[in-house]
Design brief:
Residues 139-268 form the Type VII secretion system protein EssD-like domain. With 298 residues, this protein is α+β, with helices and mostly antiparallel strands. It has helices at residues 2-14, 17-21, 27-43, 48-89, 107-111, 200-203, 217-237; strands spanning 120-122, 142-145, 157-162, 185-186, 189-190, 192-196, 212-216, 242-250, 260-267, 274-280, 286-288, 295-297.
């Protein structure tokens, strides 16, 4: 074993380090394995030079194999991105490497966009698009929740948020069952959450039918919570801070389970908080029936 470790150190010095950087950390396991192979070769009375050459050849072969696999995976990722980009462009949407830029103009556009492995995408170049009137603080903080539609689905929630609207008491248990509520346990916990359009931590609204939808755990947390926390942190920093906030569930036609949620936020007077994003209502390993919210494990 000691011989193998010594040979391993020698190999690291002899190898082209640039080539080493091109592969994933798993190559270290290959190095260790080949080091032990070298130790075995030496223990079989092969000369050190022969053992070293033999081991270096084996290691280079492993490195090339790993590099090729890595390249194939990158090609696969690029192909997936191209497929998503092609589909998105038909809807007036373009994609970036991390979050995608989107110029979709309405609910129907977003509802027709299929999930392709990227749960959060940006809309309208991530620009919230609020007007000067929308950002006015003349009337102080406020909140408004759109009426339920003819299928009892939540429609939209808007607010001019301020520290004064944030609750000071712990949230009570939710009892409202929004449309599409067919919950069940999966390996990671409960499939669905009763998801607030405007998070409880921002306004204190809880069992409000107009502010709740059925959302997967991954959409609600970390999906929406990540962006809600940005707003909450900004509001907590000063009682003078305001954030214009708008959240709408995106339904396709008469489906009862939302396809996703669009969130827009803009801090007033600066860009400390500024986003326009869409989160797909999906859960890894589960196929959802958006017509009624039922589901099956993949």
């Amino acid at each position: 074993m000691g011989i193998g470790i010594i040979v391993l150190l020698i190999l690291v010095l002899l190898l082209n380090l640039k080539q080493l950087k091109k592969v994933k950390p798993v190559v270290l396991l290959a190095l260790i394995a080949v080091g032990f192979i070298a130790g075995i070769a030496l223990s079989q009375n092969n000369s050190p030079v022969e053992a070293l050459n033999q081991t270096k050849t084996q290691l280079i072969s492993v490195l090339r194999s790993l590099t090729e696999k890595n390249a194939k995976q990158e090609h696969k990722n690029e192909s997936l991105k191209a497929k998503l980009s092609s589909q998105a462009q038909k809807l007036g949407i373009t994609l970036e490497d991390t979050d995608s830029k989107q110029t979709a103009s309405g609910n129907e556009d977003l509802a027709q966009l299929s999930y392709q492995g990227q749960q959060v995408i940006t809309v309208n170049d991530n620009k919230p698009g609020f007007s000067a009137a929308d950002l006015s603080t003349a009337k102080g903080p406020w909140q408004h929740y759109g009426d339920l539609d003819n299928l009892n689905r939540a429609t939209q929630a808007d607010a001019l948020l301020n520290q004064s609207l944030m609750p000071k008491t712990k949230r009570e248990r939710l009892t409202v069952n929004p449309t599409g509520w067919h919950n069940k346990r999966i390996s990671s916990g409960w499939l669905y959450n009763r998801s607030h359009l405007i998070g409880y931590q921002l306004t204190g609204q809880n069992n409000n039918w107009k502010n709740l939808i059925t959302a997967t755990r991954s959409l609600n947390d970390p999906g929406m919570v990540k962006y809600e926390d940005q707003v909450a942190d900004y509001l907590k920093a000063s009682p003078k801070h305001y954030v214009r906030y708008s959240v709408r569930p995106v339904f396709y036609q008469n489906e009862l389970l939302a396809r996703g949620v669009q969130m827009r936020a803009q801090s007033v007077g600066d860009n400390s908080v500024s986003y326009n994003i869409y989160i797909f209502n999906i859960q890894p390993g589960v196929t959802l029936n958006y017509n009624d919210g039922t589901s099956r494990l993949n």
